[in-house]
Amino acid sequence: MKPIAPSARLAEVRYEIRGALARRARDMEAAGTPIVHLNIGNPGRFGFRAPAHLVDAIPAHLTHSDGYCQEQGIDEAREAIVARQHARGVADVDVDRVFIGNGVSELIDISLRALLGPGDEVLLPSPDYPLWSASTVLNGGRPRYYHCAAANDHLPDPEEMERLITPRTRAIVLINPNNPTGAVYPRALLERIVTLAARHDLLLLSDEIYDEIVYDDARFEPLAPLAGEVPCLSFSGLSKVHRACGFRIGWMSLSGDRRRTAQLRDALQLLSALRLCANVPAQWAVRAALEGPDTIGPLLRPGGRLHAARQAVLNGVAASRHLQLVAPRGALYAFPAVRADTLPTFDDSEFALRLLEEEGVLLAPGSSFNVEASRHLRLTLLPEPDTLRDVFARIERVLDRMSE
Ligand code: PLP
């Protein structure tokens, strides 16, 4: 009998952050080896709790949350998202242009499904957050990668972006602040990308899930206020800034010329309706999150846990013979690279496997993020600073052994 073959589209789809390496770590743990997990940006795993005012907002409404809600989300949450966008200077967002999903993950898929036909192209960053590439492929599209190289502080080059545009290009995806690199895009760069989108009739898709997570003097600039009439979908949610990724709540808001975006808006509503609605009880945390106190800022400033974790990573790299790093300016990751002068031939996947098997540390090799021939490693800044200090000693030991 013939095997049941999965869709051929899956041949191009990878999500290595939770792939073979992570499964190997699970097996090792089951066999009694303690593993330090640095591969996933899951705040709950590192002792962070969702702020109490988010948690408390849910039970008060549980008795009214047993039915499906409107496909785009409950009014109270969408109104709070509209108010946030107005405060940022995006006056043309209203509740009809806001969509709440089971995490930004679901909305990435819905937005690309609404947009793409077979063979349509999407400009994506390399490295990327791999769901963007996977969703592009699963919805019949083709990723075209613009490079965000360490030599350019992991920033995109709008001239390269423009060279990649073809008659099939439909959209530009930006991840800002960036996962995995920690880059935060300056306003002048964003303005150039908006100009490109305007010139070539492209939709802007701005993944801003780390919007309030910036370090030192870095400043996050939301794209929608700069995009003005240029059609733009902006994404954010509860998972990172509010440390509530288990709630599975994200949102996207549509801005720009109403005539040009009317059909897209209707398509997003239709696709939202097909999956009925997002988890209703957790939507009650949205207004609490957006109207409540700033709980992430204190973690990012001197004395805060994420500030100290980032410093531990910077110190670990500075003390290393093998590593170099463009200091992350935002988000929850560092993306160091192994220097070519101490290790001329380096395979990031082989290194990640050795680090796991020899030192019990799980991180994501750079090649998990759609980069060719990566010399990078991605680790999350969420652990305790002491754990990170210890991890750098273990990384150095493996790199020393590889360079012998
Ligand atoms: N976008 C980026 C850039 C991410 O890093 C993540 C999760 O790590 C997501 C989207 C998915 O977030 P959510 O938990 O809202 O589905």
UniProtKB/TrEMBL annotation:
Protein name, UniProt field: alanine transaminase
One term of GO molecular function: L-alanine:2-oxoglutarate aminotransferase activity
The EC number(s) this enzyme carries: 2.6.1.2
Pfam families with a match to the protein in the record: Aminotran_1_2
CDD domains the UniProt entry points to: AAT_like (cd00609)
PANTHER family reported for this sequence: GLUTAMATE-PYRUVATE AMINOTRANSFERASE ALAA
Keywords tagged on the record: Aminotransferase, Pyridoxal phosphate, Transferase
Organism of provenance: Oleiagrimonas soli
